[in-house]
Specification:
single chain, alpha+beta, Four Helix Bundle (Hemerythrin (Met), subunit A), 5-stranded antiparallel beta sheet, 45% helix, disordered N terminus, binds 2-acetamido-2-deoxy-beta-D-glucopyranose, transmembrane helix, transmembrane, transport, Cytochrome b561 and DOMON domain-containing protein, metal-binding
Length: 381
């Protein structure tokens, strides 16, 4: 069997490699959004340097999109539309983003019934919310719309960019090949139909990933640390606390690694959307925990002169794991977006664990201070 340090460096190397290798070559998957805007799918549209990100909830026919494109000029416009009756521009139900007269970005809806001048109007879908941004030469149009027909899973869509707006009305666009080819069919549940990122099996995999990681990083690691910190104060608990601590952390590590592996798999399968922060925290956690487990074998004896340094390292890694683990679990909740009761249940678990830790901290200090008074300070604390 290879020595632990060799296994460790191999694991670190593998970790680094998986961090560097791009999940896929699509451009839209590297686009990120401010705030909590997360979209399940994205596509690099074939013309006009434009991108579409979207999430679709079929039971409510609710579609959230972010359409990204460079307008022809800064005073131009960008548009994304659904055409419920045909495949081209005529009949399309358009969202158009442009700068309004006050200089802010606005989004308006148009029923494009002919090639004539546009007139703002109601459209075939309900617009729940819409907004737009303009920066770096690129406009971003955000909208959440509710489609009319329940259960619809694919739509004809059309996108477009223009160079000017006159009196609050977007002017005609160019008629180049890119403009004329800016249309297609959009499968709103792309992931579900090919078992990719969505669908029942995708959701089940995500739930397994969530449960494994919450149990490991979110509950067992903190419990193991509580055992180590508070049981050792009592000489009668020595060396039981140590074996309990090691057992708890090694079990947590085993579950955590499987949770981590499911996460890597989900990340590799997710063609549309990546969650770089969640992924990087996950990789950091795995690395820290791996070092912790192997450090068990490299631990200097209690009275060795380096033991203090080992302790400092071991404690700081341990507390970092608790903090990062909890942060990443909440990041995961935001991504998976399960029913609120799950997040609330986990918050309750943390509050209880935190309460226990505070209580034990008080008890420990009372005991330690009393011992100090009696001149019998237990040197392990
Ligand atoms: C859009 O305009 C066409 C032609 O005027 C009309 O037939 C259609 O009902 C309109 N659609 C909506 C959603 O208002």
């Amino acid at each position: 069997m290879a020595p632990p340090s060799q296994i460790l460096s191999t694991l670190l190397l593998l970790t680094t490699c998986s961090l560097l290798s791009p999940a896929n070559s699509a451009t839209c998957s590297s686009q990120t959004f401010t705030g909590n805007n997360l979209y399940r799918f994205c596509t690099d549209l074939p013309t006009l340097n434009s991108y579409l990100h979207w999430s679709y909830n079929p039971s409510q026919s609710s579609l959230s999109i972010a359409f990204i494109a460079p307008p022809v000029t800064p005073s131009g416009w960008i548009s994304w539309a659904i055409n419920p009756t045909a495949t081209g521009m005529v009949g399309s139900q358009a969202l158009i983003a442009f700068r309004d007269s006050k200089g802010g970005m606005t989004v308006k809806t148009y029923n494009v019934s002919s090639y004539g001048p546009l007139k703002e109007s109601k459209v075939w879908y309900d617009v729940k919310e819409s907004s737009a941004e303009f920066s770096g030469g690129v406009m971003r149009l955000f909208a959440t719309v509710v489609l009319q027909e329940k259960g619809e899973t694919a739509v004809n869509h059309v996108w477009q960019v223009g160079g000017s707006v006159t009196g609050g009305v977007p002017d005609k666009h160019d008629f180049g090949a890119g403009n004329l080819g800016a249309k297609g069919r959009l499968d709103l549940l792309r992931g579900q139909s090919n078992g990719d990122t969505g669908g029942d099996s995708g959701i089940r995999k995500r739930n397994i990933h969530g449960v494994l990681n919450v149990v490991s990083w979110g509950i067992m690691f903190p419990v193991g640390i509580i055992i180590a910190r508070y049981m050792r104060t009592f000489p009668s608990a020595d060396p039981a606390w140590f074996y309990l601590h090691v057992f708890c952390q090694v079990a947590a590590y085993a579950i955590g690694v499987s949770g981590w592996a499911t996460g890597l798999k989900l990340g590799g399968e997710s063609k549309g959307v990546t969650y770089p922060i969640h992924r990087n925290i996950g990789i950091t956690l795995f690395s820290l925990a791996t070092i912790q487990v192997f450090a068990l074998f490299l631990r200097p004896k209690k009275d060795h002169k380096y033991r203090t340094y080992w302790n400092i390292y071991h404690y700081s890694f341990g507390y970092s794991i608790i903090v990062l683990g909890i942060i990443n679990i909440f990041k995961g909740f935001d991504i998976l977006n399960p029913e609120p009761k799950w997040k609330n249940a986990y918050i309750a678990v943390i509050v209880v664990l935190g309460g226990i830790a505070v209580l034990l901290e008080v008890i420990t200090w009372t005991v330690v201070l009393r011992r100090k008074k009696l001149g019998k300070l237990h040197d392990g604390f």
